[in-house]
Backbone:
């Protein structure tokens, strides 16, 4: 896990080093470049921008001191949570055994979807029934994207999961999920259609009203996809085995109300500021 200090609150996200050497030892050496998978970078960025949009006096944020709070937001990273952490929109990683989840109490404001809800409830916790991946708030916090989305330049964009990228890299419409974050978001916004196995490629596309179809991942559990779709009110969803199958699908537009997730934003972790925007409670 990587901790990013967002005005005094530790916002956790996953961004491991790319191993410089093969094998177990190489994977444990803490140096080299970060992987920078764009979906894993969204958490701190969305939290920071949503807070900045919501505070009455933005200059007050610079005066905030460090706090003991930890916020886990965006991604399948609940197995990294510590007892007492605040959870807002993150989810369970279906590849992780239950034993990896060592917390016995959490401050749960929202979860990605009903599968994460059920997992936490079965462990004796009391999750709230506020569902949604905060990646769906991308058009709100990157507010230039909706206008860009009206100026289509690409009939198709393929956004593979990090592990699937090598298999798709040769296709001219494939983007590298470890590229520049804003450039990836803008490419998705300018696309008429998005397909692939990157969960956040689908999430961002759907947040902008762009038809998106999942191509079955080769290395990921289906848990996170089912969790996301369930969190946006869909118990079933189209899944393709290849590009031709994906393009043959006609996905329905998403119908999801962002307000409950916005209302659940844990603005109270930042004491000493006055809110006036979308996260005011």
Residues:
């Amino acid at each position: 896990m990587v901790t990013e200090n967002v005005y005094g609150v530790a916002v956790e996200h996953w961004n491991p080093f790319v191993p410089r050497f093969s094998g177990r030892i190489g994977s444990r050496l803490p140096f080299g470049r970060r992987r920078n998978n764009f979906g894993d970078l969204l958490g701190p960025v969305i939290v920071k921008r949503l807070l900045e949009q919501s505070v009455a006096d933005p200059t007050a944020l610079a005066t905030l001191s460090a706090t003991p709070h930890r916020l886990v937001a965006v991604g399948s990273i609940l197995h990294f949570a510590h007892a007492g952490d605040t959870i807002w929109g993150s989810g369970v990683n279906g590849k992780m055994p239950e034993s990896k989840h060592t917390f016995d109490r959490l401050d749960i404001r929202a979860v990605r979807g009903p599968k994460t809800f059920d997992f936490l409830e079965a462990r004796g916790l009391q999750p709230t029934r506020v569902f949604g991946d905060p990646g769906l708030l991308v058009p709100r916090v990157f507010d230039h994207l909706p206008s860009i989305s009206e100026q289509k330049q690409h009939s198709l964009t393929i956004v593979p999961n990090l592990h699937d990228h090598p298999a798709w890299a040769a296709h001219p419409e494939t983007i590298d999920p470890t590229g520049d974050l804003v450039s990836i978001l803008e490419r998705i916004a300018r696309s008429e259609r998005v397909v692939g196995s990157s969960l956040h490629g689908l999430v961002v596309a759907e947040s902008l009203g762009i038809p998106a179809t999942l191509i079955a991942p080769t290395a990921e559990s289906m848990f996170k996809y089912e969790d996301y779709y369930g969190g946006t009110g869909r118990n079933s969803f189209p899944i393709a085995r290849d590009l031709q199958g994906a393009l043959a699908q006609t996905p329905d537009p998403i119908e999801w109300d962002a307000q409950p997730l916005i209302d659940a934003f844990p603005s109270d972790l930042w004491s000493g500021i006055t809110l006036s925007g979308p996260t005011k409670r």
Summary: The chain has two domains: 2-134+259-269, 136-248. The longest strand covers residues 2-6. The first helix runs from residue 23 to 28. The beta strands are 2-6, 9-13, 70-72, 86-88, 107-110, 157-158, 194-196, 212-215, 239-240.
